[in-house]
């Protein structure tokens, strides 16, 4: 039952009232469902961020290894002719992992990528070592392989 505002009489609910209440209940249900879905998405995003952070940590090169390559690269990166990377008969099979990393630095330097993109040597060295670290060792055609 409901009370009319003007007369103060008690009247039963009519079809219009039922439809209004039904629409309000649907609205409230959608609001609750939206809130629950938003919370579930927030939890999933938090889990994803933690997972990506863990994977990123394990996929990145070690700081010490990066510093070693950076100091070596700053001191001596052989020329492309010395490394023979411009020769048609170039083969990387004779190169060690360190020499392969130095070849990569030489290619970036000779192509002016370091200067054009204003790369920091530390970032370049870390990226090269991270790529090396994430190469699968059981794939024959990858340059960084198990020896």
TrEMBL record:
Gene Ontology terms, MF aspect: 3',5'-cyclic-nucleotide phosphodiesterase activity; metal ion binding
Protein name per its UniProtKB record: Cyclic nucleotide phosphodiesterase 5a
Keyword Metal-binding part of the UniProt annotation: yes
InterPro entries: GAF-like_dom_sf (IPR029016), PDEase_catalytic_dom (IPR002073), PDEase_catalytic_dom_sf (IPR036971)
Alphabetically ordered keywords of this record: Hydrolase, Metal-binding
Highest taxon above the source species: Eukaryota
Protein species of origin: Cavia porcellus
Domain PDEase: 65-147
GO biological processes: signal transduction
The UniProt record lists the keyword Transferase: no
Gene3D superfamilies: 3'5'-cyclic nucleotide phosphodiesterase, catalytic domain, 3.30.450.40
């Amino acid at each position: 039952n409901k009370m009319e505002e003007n007369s103060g009489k008690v009247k039963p609910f009519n079809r219009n009232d039922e439809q209004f209440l039904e629409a309000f209940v649907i609205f409230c249900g959608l609001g609750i469902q939206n809130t629950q879905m938003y919370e579930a998405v927030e939890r999933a995003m938090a889990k994803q961020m933690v997972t990506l952070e863990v994977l990123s940590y394990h996929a990145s090169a070690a700081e010490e290894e990066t510093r070693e390559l950076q100091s070596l690269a700053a001191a001596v990166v052989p020329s492309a002719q010395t490394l023979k990377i411009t020769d048609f008969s170039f083969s990387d099979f004779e190169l060690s992992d360190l020499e392969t990393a130095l070849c990569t630095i030489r290619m970036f330097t000779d192509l002016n990528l370091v200067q054009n993109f204003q790369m920091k040597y530390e970032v370049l060295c870390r990226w090269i070592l991270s790529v090396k670290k994430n190469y699968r060792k059981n794939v024959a055609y990858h340059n960084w392989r198990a020896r």
